[in-house]
Amino acid sequence: MSASAPYCQYLPAKERSFFMHMPIDPATIAIRAHNVTLSLGTRDAPVEILTGVDLVMLRGESIAILGASGSGKSSLMAVLCGLERASGGDVHIGGVDFGALDEDALARARRGRIGIVLQSFHLLPTMTALENVAVPLELAGDVDAFARAADELRAVGLGHRLDHYPAQLSGGEQQRVAIARAVAPRPTILFADEPTGNLDATTGITIMDLLFDRQRAAGATLVIITHDPSLAERCGRIVEMRDGQIVSDRTA
């Protein structure tokens, strides 16, 4: 019997199929979602977005959540990040029960645990690249926020763009700033939602190389939300979704 078997016997079947032959320590679990559901709309006419998702992600893994538009992959990310509250089930992030927290407590729990890179960059247009990266550090009370922000921008190749505003940067440079901002607080989990969706193919490859590099440097779990199978294959594991459910979970 593998070292993981005693723990796996308590996992749902979809989780057991992936972990049964792996040594696993519960302390290494970054994310655990059990029977997660999400319904939107009215009580009389609910729209089922997620329907009983079971998922375990380990610390340091790189995982692609793959699916077509409308499959529920971005909604699952929102629930796992604590940006959307699940309608049912349990979500534990780094051992913290996100379902038991109010909005203020969720914001505090995300800080330092979760970094997010979005397709549309979402930089603050009136702030420089340096200021954009320093903001989350300042909110966390880091007295060296600007020095750390500058170091992270240099790490993504933007040491010469510290004082530039988003409108003065290319799409690829803006995504580099977004990566630096997400990684600077040293999160244990890094989410990237279609991180190359607004970039040309060549720039997209460069950005993904950078994202994996920064993930390894931080030792973080990387979760990439994508519809692109070729991008998903770059991850160590691929979780495929369809109609709000996980339909496959395999190593890449």
UniProtKB/TrEMBL annotation:
Database matches in InterPro entries: AAA+_ATPase, ABC_transporter-like_ATP-bd, ABC_transporter-like_CS, ABC_transpr_LolD-like, MacB-like_ATP-bd, P-loop_NTPase
Keyword Zinc-finger: no
Any one Gene Ontology cellular component term annotated for this protein: plasma membrane
Domain ABC transporter: 31-252
GO MF terms, alphabetically ordered: ATP binding; ATP hydrolysis activity; transmembrane transporter activity
Keyword match Nucleotide-binding: yes
Keyword list, A-Z: ATP-binding, Nucleotide-binding, Transport
The protein's name: ABC transport system ATP-binding protein
Species, as recorded: Sphingobium xenophagum
